[in-house]
């Protein structure tokens, strides 16, 4: 004798994006704050010391924002023309910036007027930065040269003119105070040592280099240019480790997260991709409204700041971590209640009376077992079930349909329940896994409640909604079919070509065999 | 078939021409009582001797049996067809049977047959006296009242009661006007064992309890109504306090009291209840179901156990498939289930729930059922296809099951909803033994004009619950024709798919179309590849009546024959292919090898029914003694299923030869003492006695000689009939002790004898050798001489019997 078999609820695997630890982590940001700047934002840099203010370079100004402020807490606007690449020193007290007229300005974060001005570049300077000994500044300009400056004396220490195009990006090694790298539009990145007269290493990126990045260990170099992000092993003499092609427009900026485990790249295709630095696979990506020029991540990944070409600064703050609910649990029976009698070994003369295992059935199953169709449908029309587990509702509807009692279960309901049913159907009927069942349900509902249409405004509204949803879906399907047709034509042309190729190959193979035979 | 439970815990039931004796305690079929030449229609215990059984059959005889020993005591020849049998305690020398009325069709009468007390086995039972005229033909339409005072018969809407003493016939009839609930025709009748009360079941699901039917006018009846469809059978308990009823709902209903509507239910018995039978001591009740099953139910309405034969399902859509693991025949069982039927033991091994939905017995419901089944070569994977009965838009599911060694059953691995847009026509696995299961490929063909290739995908995600799942790898089609059959070649390199008139051959590595064959006109009905030495041939049968053989190397038609092939079945172990044709209302069997255009075996007029399915079941060990004609049956046995749901096989030996081993075994069982327990006890005591009287060599001999069968008995006896382990322990330990003596020839001989007796399919030669050994060995030991001599004599007698048989068969 068989026991009652509960209704099988078809679990559907979630298609599309898989939920991983990474997606959960990177989704944990609040809705972004948008701040309008005066021009395209070419650089964002976080102060390395608390309270982690960040400097935003846009047009002829440098704004400094606090962590949660929407207004700049400080502005440097002493530039005649566009300013570039405002960068903090390691202690967060000095700021250096290049400018369109070729001069480099050094500011005290608390002051207003520049402390030093380095003159020497003849063309705009897009790259400035501090070496890790804090007393020297390196720069790269559109005059193809990369220079090194001494802060105390405000003089040029050395000038390298090895690049053959604009120098637009660079970074300094954190390990060695003499080493810095510049990337140029001549498709190369060059590694310079301040102690030598010429570059130490040249890396061929293959595209104009838009951004370079050294790992904190100094062993790996990341370069971005064109649609590619490439990772090089510096210690092995600049060997290419991996080439990533995940963007479909030029990659403009790179950034590492605070732990160094993830690499972020922003691109003109309006996407920020996050790679794992162990597998170099994309683990997550963000979409933005416009093309991205600059990108920065605050220490501890608290804030992601993205600068766009249209001058919008997009700031995302991390949600505060949810407090673990330590609400008082319901008092459960003591442990000894569970173990009581479990260890008892029956003696030889004892009779063992086995207690039948109690099967727990869901409410709708109990009702279905006793053939109460209407009540079973009521049981799965409760809002929590309908909202969170629509598959249960649909499974019960299907079971009722199989038993031939769906019509009677749907009939005889009041306005509120019909409204609830129609809301559910209109919302879920376009989901492919529910469509076959819900179409019949919708048919039946319209059949049953046709005579009373017009008596209730709420229900009529829901009927219209259902109609809209179905109309939309039909349009959508038509479009899809059109695309399919286009693709079919494309595929057809492809396969034809391949066929002819194959035939050629075949004939070649035959002739070869004949030839070999002759040789024998 | 009906059943009777005898008080000493035996269940007797009718199965075709035989009556089977089943022990309720040991759950084993003890005996097969056979002797009737046609279907047995009724069995009843002899009311005066509970160890005797009356049976009647369509061949016109009533037989009295001693069912404990399976011996026929008397045979009464009546001469006409007997349709039902009743016995009465008050009528000492007569039984009641239902026979067709002479001269009139479809009218039956209840007659009493006087059983003459003559000497000898075969007697005439010609003294008939008509009791009632115009009765129903079914056993359920007549019932005898309290202490045999009256007899009740129902037919259509009429109820007749005949009182024996008063010779009075009362007729009652219900109104023929069809009520809202349907027709109120009688379906069955039973009488209260203690009171004057008749319970009748009706086609509209009502049960009526009649009282005061002594009077023509003042009779009363009360109605009980729960069943929604016809009441198939009713039964009163021994004291008449409760009434049991059953119907198509497959729910056994127990009515406590007619006034209050208190009732108990035993739901979900599996399939519609056809008969209900109470044991004469009232402890057990059993229900017979339409799917060839008997359920035994305790008096407190608890399901106890069931006896399950081959389930007859309405339509075997899955075909006959052989499970490579158990060698069991796999086909549709209960609705939504797959039955694994063991051919050796005629038992259902287990039933696998595929659809996993509550089955509701209601007319007009579209049930989903199993339509295709395929096993992988080693039996680790099982693929099933289920579809609902809708014609246009079937709800399809493809399920893949993995065999779990731990739970010894199949577990659902992957479920694919709507694998095809239309009905699936065929399905096969790529059988590659040497490559293991990693390279498994499943191919399904559908009426939506495509075939799909499904492959196993390993899930790399460690968090996933299962490591493998299945997904679609390739979809192939050919000119938008419906795909009808698919088949892999033996090495798995080629796939043949038939599309209506054309057979296409595909490379299973690249899924390129290699070549096409066709033999117009006529669609392809079956295809299969040749095996072993004939693997270069592809055989196809068209529905235009042609059997074609194509050579795959030359891509040309090798030969073709004009034959209307219904079933084409290759033998998995040899290159033979069996083709069953259907022409002018008879089925014929042709067995051929693909490399020769002429058949090696023809059996015309195999049976009158249309054969729908066939399967080769590998034999456990190849048959040695098969003559040249049946050489192709050496490695496997061929089974057929006809459209009347009968399972048939082609046997190399004649019927007599096959029956001898079983009768031989029966004889062995007869010679054994009643229970293995007493056997053991007896031996134990005898041993002790011998140990007491004469110590020394002889004792050691004896002990060893008897120990090994003792252990055998110990191991082969059901646990619940054995004495306690502490008692058996000493015997067992003793039997394991190694004696100082070498194994004597005597002991070896004894073992051989045991085996030869146990084995069913022993040839005569082996028996002779065993006997010779026995004879020589007995010279050494005189003590046991007398006993053994009688045994050998018995053997010789049996041998003579056997020789007689062969002589007859030769004639």
Automatic annotation (TrEMBL), chain A:
Its main location: nucleus. One of its GO terms (cellular component) is nucleolus. The keyword ATP-binding does not apply. Pfam families: UTP15_C, WD40. One of its GO terms (biological process) is positive regulation of transcription by RNA polymerase I. Residues 344-490 form the U3 small nucleolar RNA-associated protein 15 C-terminal domain. WD repeats lie at residues 118-159, 244-285. Keywords: Nucleus, Repeat, rRNA processing, WD repeat. It is found in: Nucleus, Nucleolus. Ribosome biogenesis factor. Involved in nucleolar processing of pre-18S ribosomal RNA. Required for optimal pre-ribosomal RNA transcription by RNA polymerase I. Part of the small subunit (SSU) processome, first precursor of the small eukaryotic ribosomal subunit. During the assembly of the SSU processome in the nucleolus, many ribosome biogenesis factors, an RNA chaperone and ribosomal proteins associate with the nascent pre-rRNA and work in concert to generate RNA folding, modifications, rearrangements and cleavage as well as targeted degradation of pre-ribosomal RNA by the RNA exosome. This is U3 small nucleolar RNA-associated protein 15 homolog. The gene is Utp15.
UniProtKB/TrEMBL annotation, chain B:
One of its GO terms (cellular component) is small-subunit processome. WD repeats lie at residues 33-75. Keywords: Nucleus, Repeat, Ribosome biogenesis, rRNA processing, Transcription, WD repeat. It is found in: Nucleus, Nucleolus. SMART domains: WD40. Pfam families: Beta-prop_WDR75_1st, Beta-prop_WDR75_2nd. It comes from the Eukaryota. GO terms for biological process: positive regulation of rRNA processing; positive regulation of transcription by RNA polymerase I; rRNA processing. SUPFAM superfamilies: Putative isomerase YbhE, WD40 repeat-like. Residues 747-773 are annotated as: Disordered. Residues 320-645 form the WD repeat-containing protein 75 second beta-propeller domain. GO terms for molecular function: RNA binding. Its main location: nucleus. PANTHER family: WD REPEAT-CONTAINING PROTEIN 75. This is WDR75 protein. The gene is Wdr75.
